[in-house]
Write a structure and sequence with these properties.
By secondary structure, the protein is of the alpha+beta class. Helices cover about 20% and strands about 30% of the residues. The structure holds coenzyme A (COA).
């Protein structure tokens, strides 16, 4: 039997009850993944991405979904969304790894900026976005927006970013 393909984003984090926690890109949005996805986000609305370019990144302990997130392209902007880690797997670095993987993915596809909508609550923002240098901004075309009312954060992709966080370089 052929050896399983190793994806560029496979990152082992630590041991868990059935092996290792691995962060990887979701390569197949098949029925099995859809069922996991629906259960994982059952108590909060998730946006349908339709035909937008996107990539899901997940953390697994064996077959179990420990964390999940998405990066998608909308109107020329790469946007991070849907970051969630199961309560029993929190504070192990999973959200950080999912964010780094998504930023790498978008940068690898040419992103010069990465965006994040801030309606997920402060913890998500504090844990996983501000640390990389995301700044609160008004989105293009938002009427009457001020920094106080803005609902977006933006990260500019610069050489300095890679110097500070080499892990973000694709
Ligand atoms: C916010 C969330 C994604 C963090 O996931 P996580 O895997 O525990 O985060 P990490 O372990 O990668 O932690 C990243 C950083 O945030 C900090 N952090 C994480 N949880 C924290 C908490 N509860 N309080 C304070 N700091 C916290 C960590 O210490 C770490 O910082 P450090 O590297 O400086 O030590 C997770 O708590 C979560 O999923 N919350 C619910 C979000 C949700 O349901 N949103 C709705 C989506 S539909």
């Amino acid at each position: 039997m052929a050896a399983p393909r190793l994806y560029q984003y496979n990152v082992s984090i630590m041991q868990c009850k059935t092996g290792e926690i691995v962060v990887r890109k979701v390569e197949k949005e098949d029925a099995g993944w859809k069922a996991h996805f629906a259960a994982f986000y059952s108590d909060c609305g998730v946006k349908k991405l339709g035909r937008k370019a996107h990539a899901y990144f997940a953390a697994y302990c064996g077959e179990e979904l420990a964390g999940h997130s998405v990066v998608y392209l909308e109107k020329g902007r790469w946007i991070l969304d849907g970051l969630r880690v199961s309560p029993e797997y929190r504070e192990m670095g999973i959200a950080k790894r999912l964010t780094e993987a998504r930023i790498r993915h978008a940068v690898g596809l040419g992103a010069k900026e990465i965006w994040y909508p801030c309606d997920d609550g402060n913890l998500v923002t504090i844990c996983c976005h501000l640390r990389y240098g995301f700044e609160k901004v008004c989105a293009p075309g938002e009427p009457h927006c001020t920094v106080a009312t803005a609902h977006w954060y933006r990260l500019e992709v610069t050489p300095a970013l890679f110097e500070k966080f080499p892990v973000l370089k694709p």
